[in-house]
Amino acid sequence: MPKHIEPIQSVKGTRDLLPPETELWQRVEEEARRVFQAYGFREIRTPILEATALFARSVGADTDIVTKEMYTFQDRDEESLTLRPEATASVVRAYIEHRLYHEGGLHKLYYLGPMFRRDRPQKGRYRQFYQMGAEVLGSDHPAIDVETIEMLVLLLERLALQEFTLLLNSVGCPRCRPEYLKVLRRALEEVRANLCADCQRRAVTNPLRVLDCKVEADQPIIERLPRMVDYLCMECRQHLEAVKSGLQDSGVAYQDVPRLVRGLDYYTRTTFEITSGALGAQNAILGGGRYDGLSEMLGGPPAPGFGFAIGEDRLALAVKEAWEKQPIEAPRARRPLAYIAWMGDAALGAAAKLARELRRQNLSIEISYQPNKLKRALGTASKIGARFTVIIGEGELASGRYQVKDMGTGQQDEVEADPGKVAAYLHEKTAKREGSNPATGERT
Ligand code: AMP
To answer: For labeling, which of 149, 182, 257, 262 is most exposed (least CB within 10 Å)?
Structure first.
C-alpha cells in the first residue's frame, strides 16, 4: 500500500493566480504600461529583498507595517533582510544609489511587482499582494500632483471602472506638522481611555494613525479631534489649494477628507486615495502622495517626490466586476486558432512540422502527440474551442493536400500541404471576420 502523502498547500495569505484570471491581469498591466508611458514614465525593477533599515527609516519605525507586518529575517551572514512591504523606498534608494539626480530634471519611474505584509488575510487583503506604482522625483510643484492623479483617473477610465472616488488631504510638512501633533497629542490625552487598545498605543507612539482607525466605537471621538488642515503653514496651504484648483481644471472630482493620513511616515503635504464602490471592506484601490523629505531620510540629496501604488489584486477585482456589468468582453479561456489532428505514425512528422511553422508565425496552435482516431481528435478540438482543425491522415499525405475544417460552420476545405499555404488560408479566413485577432481568430 502506498503511504498517504499530505499535499502541501500555499502559504496562508498567498495565492495562485490561474488562467483565465492571469489574462485579466495581463490586460490591466498592458493598459497601465500604456498610460504610464504616455505620461513619460519608464520602468524600474528593484530587488524584492532589501536591507531592513531601508523600511525602518522611510516607512517609519513606529508604523504598523514596520512593527507588525514585515517579513524580516537574518541572512546567514547576520545581515537583517526584509521582503519589501512597498516599493517607494526602494525606488528612492535606487535613485540615490545610482545618482540619477546628477542628470538633473525630473525622473519618472514606474514599477510592477509583489509586496509582502503579514496582515490579517481577508478578501482583497493578502500577505503577498501586487502593486503597480509610479514615482516622480525632482520637483515639488503642485502640477506634478495634479498630473499624476489625472493619469490615474485616465487609467481607471480606460479600464472602464465606474464608481470610484478620489479622497484628498494634506498632512503638512516638518514645519507645520509638529505643532499640529502637539495639539493632537493633547486632545488625545483627554479621550485616550475611551479609545480602542490599538489607538491607546498609537496615541503615544504615532498619534496621526489614530485618525485612520476603523473601529466603529472610536469614530465619534475621532470626528471631534483637531484637523491637520486647520494647522497647515502658508506654503502647505497654498500647495493644497493649487492641487485642488488644478484637479478642478482637469475635470477630476475629489472629496476633502481631513482624516486621510495613510500608514507611512514619509508623506508630506498631499495624500490621496481612490476607493471603489465595487469592493467591500478593503475598498482602497490605490493610495499615494508627496514625500518631499524621503530622499534626505535615506541619505540622499534633496529630491522632492510624488507617487502612488495601485493594489493590483483589488484593481483586478473591481475591473472584473465592472466588465461583467458592461458590454466589454471579459477574458475567457484563450482559444487556440487551430488543432492539428494526425492519424497514423507516418503523419506525425508532417503534423509536428506544421505546428512548428504556424507557431513561428505567432498563431496559437494545439497538437496532441497521443495517437488518436479522427472522431476523437475532432472531439478534442471542439472541447478546447479550436476555431479550425487541420486533418492529416494517410490520404492527405498521399494527395499532398490537408483538410481544414471550420469548427464553427462545419465547412471543410482542402489546402495544399505546405505550412505557408496553411498559414495564408487561416489568415484569410480569420481576416474575413472583421476585427478578429489573427493569432487566435477571436474578436478583439
Ligand atoms: P499602501 O502601500 O499602503 O499605500 O497601499 C497602496 C494600495 O496597495 C492600497 O490602496 C491597496 O489597494 C493595496 N494594498 C495594501 N496592502 C494590501 C494587502 N495586504 N493586500 C492587498 N492589497 C493591498
So the answer is: 182
pTM over cut 0.90 = no
C-alpha cell read off for 372: 488518436
291 lines ligand 1 (CB under 6 A): no
- Alpha carbon nearest to ligand 1 atom 10, residue: 286
Atom of ligand 1 nearest to the CA of 126: 20
Domains and CATH numbers, the chain: 21-176+232-325 (3.30.930.10), 183-228 (no CATH), 336-431 (3.40.50.800)
pLDDT band at 333 (very low <50, low <70, confident <90, very high): low
Q: What is the pLDDT of residues 254-274, one digit of tens each?
A: 999 999 988 777 899 999 999
CA atoms of 404 and 422, how far apart (whole Å): 9
Do the Cβ atoms of 111 and 43 come closer than 8 Å? yes
Q: How many CB atoms lie within 10 A of CB 286?
A: 24
Rounded to 10°, the helix 345-360/419-432 angle is 60
Chain-centroid distance, C-alpha 343: 46
Helix (H, G, I), strand (E, B) or coil at 76: coil
CA distance 87 to 310: 11
Among protein residues, the one whose CA lies closest to atom 16 of ligand 1: 125
Bridge partners of 114, per DSSP, are: 130
Region at 319 (left for phi over 0; alpha for psi -120 to 50; beta for the rest): alpha
CB 28 within 8 A of CB 159: yes
